[in-house]
Write a structure and sequence with these properties.
heterodimer, A: alpha+beta, Beta Polymerase, domain 2, 3-stranded antiparallel sheet, globular, B: Rossmann fold, 3-stranded parallel sheet, elongated, disordered C terminus
């Protein structure tokens, strides 16, 4: 089926490069297959001549039966509209693809991730190190012939767990009785540990011209540090108190979401998406449901669409409350604003708990609808929340914080990123919109029923911490506007199209579903082969890609501001590392 | 604050001094003061950390139990709440943090992941429970456990502290306590105590492959 890819630029691309570009004609696929040698040239023309300035996602796929590895690129225009995807195929033995980092700096972490997990080498990448696992890790885990230590079977449901009266524990089969495996003939005594030399040697230093003989110091913040919002590490080079260079180090919460998901059935992945960005489980459900529904060709009924929007917007309000609260934490207003923010979170979580049965991990969306309808009294509670409580509390927060002298002093003009940089870094969500790019998927590429609601895209123009804060405040107000309309118009009716199914039938093909999550563009790239399990499942994590901008924002700022800049990007490590 | 809480039965206190004087044992007052001032480490790993923050916020408010003083430094904390999935990349740091905590120290494994790997157990970089490396005092089930469940876990820990005796506790014994060896990251996570086993297994596997007889089909799973 044809999804976002339009035909117009398509034939232009084929006309322009007839020898190097061919339409992808596999059933269920769209986009173009591109010759790897000429990728950079084609992409440059795509960016500069056709206006595809935004590289949304890069991911790799291992087509083991064909002996090929494929890199999939999703391009969009920041002016809105549908996208274009390019694919590059290389053989599994010599997986070498030119890097796109010189054209789109946002490709940096994503290419490193593909190198780490699939072993595709990107020529011209400035810093091709492992990102989620560690240097020295054995193998590339997302390759289909790579088996994890607790490997049971290729796909779930595992027969060993089938009720035959015999329970087998995977630990008992592993020679170490643990989740461990080593290469053959590996000897720990003679093994030399990998140092972090590559990490440190890549850091920039400045040449000093003054007479003071001062050293530039390297400091590690994290992985256990109260400012990092989880297990995140920043390596900074400092000259006095000023940041010369910064490198984020992640992977401390890499829990193999994608590998597990490729063994799972389609529906089994739904609860795993909750645990990506664990503050906004409903939006994650939304993105995944959209991606699979696109493949299945089903549409949820009206009521379900409205409830989905309500849940997604409530999540956004909650996330921004927490983001603002913790930003203040980072600024030194230790835990008082957060307590106000968490008060609202509890009220929103009450609604989630009522409708889904769980506070945080809602697992509420299904393909073609929702798990269950509202219980009695829930609607009334929600009405009170969106018409009375939330607007009042947003105003209260605004009154306390927005004109505060300390906030103005520490946030205005700090951590600036320009619109051009933000687009090149593939930033999304509030980070992008605070730099003056009014790119909101709910408007730019509407999904679900967002085209029916009246709301404004929040945008600010300075690209500093203060504007990122303001964009979040504005977005909360707009979300409340959407919520009020959705709650007012909520129709009666079924919440599931067709019969609820445990095992869904997903036709073969690829699909990229993306939603405007609270942190930015959350995309799910799913490939089905017609079997009960996805062949490839990739998450375009906004938190990870927004972190590309962290170094640009932090250079020449003070060390104390780095903490605040990180807080203003608003990351969740579950999504960064997956 | 109740002198009743620590007062031992069988000792009469004059009526005018009741509520002000309590007769008790050293153990009891020592444990009573310790259990009501547990300082957790401000240390969040994953999803459970958000519920831990929720438990510290106004609705659940763990300061009712004297636990609201969260310290980012292990040197100042009594309790490590392992709140989330423990990965192989993170466990060396967790062990190091544990070693840096002064005794008496306690560990709560919060949630399914910290207790045994949870939904991510099959993952290649997930440690099947933090208790593979450091001793755990209380396990809290749930994914994530609700703040109520976490508070229940705290109460369980308090009960555990109540039962300890100065005469027996490890931290008043002679000599220093042994630190837990910090695991290292090689091709996979390596516990320093298990080098022998690793070598034995990796060499055995390769011998089996060398002597592999193609006529005999390999039995799977």
């Amino acid at each position: 089926m044809i999804d976002q890819t339009t035909i117009v630029p398509a034939h232009r691309l084929v006309q322009r490069f007839p020898q190097w570009v061919a339409a992808d004609e596999r059933p269920g696929y769209s986009g173009f297959l591109v010759n790897p040698e000429h990728l950079v040239e084609i992409v440059r023309s795509l960016r500069d001549e056709m206006g595809y300035d935004y590289l949304s996602s890069i991911t790799g796929v291992d087509y083991l039966p064909e002996g090929k590895l494929e890199v999939v690129y999703h391009f969009y225009k920041t002016t809105g509209g549908s996208g274009l995807n390019l694919k590059v195929q290389v053989s599994r033995k010599e997986a070498v693809v030119p890097s796109l980092v010189p054209l789109y700096s946002g490709a940096n972490f994503q290419e490193r991730e593909i190198w780490d997990l699939l072993g595709i080498h990107f020529v011209g990448h400035p810093d091709l190190r492992r990102i989620l696992t560690w240097e020295g890790f054995h193998g590339h885990p997302l390759r289909k012939d790579w088996k994890e230590p607790f490997f049971e079977e290729e796909t779930k449901p595992f027969k060993s767990r089938w009720p035959e009266g015999q329970v087998q524990r995977i630990e008992d089969k592993n020679p170490f009785k643990d989740n461990l495996q080593y290469p053959n003939e590996f000897d720990p005594e003679t093994w030399i540990p990998h140092s972090e030399e590559l990490l440190y040697s890549g850091l920039k230093k400045i040449k000093k011209t003054d007479d003071l003989h001062t050293d530039q110091v390297i400091i590690n913040l994290g992985p256990q540090h109260p400012s990092t919002h989880g297990v995140f590490r920043m390596v900074v080079v400092m000259d006095g108190e000023t940041i010369v260079d910064l490198r984020p180090v992640m992977g401390y919460l890499h829990r193999n979401h994608e590998k597990i998901a490729e063994r799972n059935t389609f529906l089994q992945n739904m609860p795993f998406t909750d645990r990506l960005d664990y503050i906004c489980s409903m939006s994650n459900n939304f993105g995944y449901a959209l991606a699979v529904e696109k493949l299945m060709g089903v549409k949820p009924p009206e009521r379900a669409e409205y409830i989905r929007v309500i849940m997604a917007e409530l999540t956004r309000v909650m996330n921004h409350f927490i983001a603002v609260g913790f930003l203040l934490n980072d600024l030194g207003a230790f835990f008082t604003p957060v307590l106000y923010a968490l008060e609202e979170r509890e009220l929103i979580l009450d609604v989630f708990e009522e409708v889904s049965g769980s506070r945080m991990m809602c697992n509420y969306f299904r393909f073609g609808g929702l798990a269950r309808d509202f219980p009695e009294g829930s609607e009334e509670k929600m009405r009170r929340l969106v018409f009375d409580r939330l607007p009042r509390k947003i105003d209260e927060m605004d009154e306390f914080l927005t004109k505060n002298d300390i906030i103005l002093g520490r946030c205005e003009g700090v951590g600036v990123i320009t619109a051009e940089q933000a687009i090149a870094n593939s930033a999304s969500g509030p980070v992008l919109r605070a730099s003056g790019v009014p790119y909101d998927l709910r408007r730019a590429d509407p999904y679900s029923i967002y085209d029916r609601f009246d709301f404004d895209v929040a945008v600010r123009f300075h690209g500093d911490i203060y504007d990122r804060y303001l964009v979040r405040m504005d977005e909360m107000r707009q979300s409340v506007r959407i919520l009020q309309q959705a709650v007012r118009d909520l129709p009666k009716g079924p919440i599931m199209s067709g019969k609820p199914q445990y095992q869904v039938r997903v036709p073969a093909g690829e699909s990229y579903g993306r939603v405007e999550g609270p942190k930015g563009e959350l995309g799910f790239y799913v490939i089905s082969t017609g079997k009960p399990n996805p062949w490839r499942y990739h998450v375009r994590a906004p938190s990870l890609i927004n972190l590309t901008s962290l170094a640009d924002m932090s250079r020449n700022e003070k060390i104390a501001d780095v903490v605040t800049i990180l807080g203003s990007i608003d990351i969740v490590l579950g999504e960064v590392d997956r | 604050m109740g002198s009743k809480e620590i007062h031992l039965p069988g000792y009469d206190v004059p009526a005018e001094m009741q509520g002000q004087v309590a007769i008790t044992t050293l153990d009891k007052i020592y444990n009573w003061s310790r259990k009501n001032s547990i300082w957790p480490m401000m240390f969040g790993l994953a999803c459970c950390a958000i519920e831990m923050i929720g438990a510290a916020a106004s609705r659940y408010d763990i300061s009712r139990f004297g636990m609201e003083v969260m310290r980012p430094s292990p040197r100042q904390s009594d309790l490590m709440i392992v709140s989330g999935t423990v990965t192989k990349k993170m466990i060396p740091q967790i062990v190091r943090l544990y070693n840096q905590m002064p005794e008496p120290r306690y560990v709560i494994a919060m949630g399914a992941c910290a207790s045994g790997g949870g939904p991510f157990k099959e993952g290649y970089t997930v440690v099947s429970g933090v208790d593979k490396f450091i001793p755990v005092d209380v396990y809290i089930p749930g994914c994530p456990p609700t703040p109520q469940a976490l508070i229940h876990g705290f109460l369980a820990l308090m009960k555990k502290i109540e039962r300890e005796s100065i005469k027996e506790v490890a931290w008043y014994k002679k000599g220093e306590s042994e630190p837990v060896p910090v695991p290292v990251l090689g091709p996979d996570l390596m516990d320093l105590r298990k080098f022998e086993l690793i070598r034995e297994v990796t060499h055995r596997v390769s011998e089996v492959e060398e002597n592999f007889n193609p006529e005999k089909p390999e039995v799977e799973g």
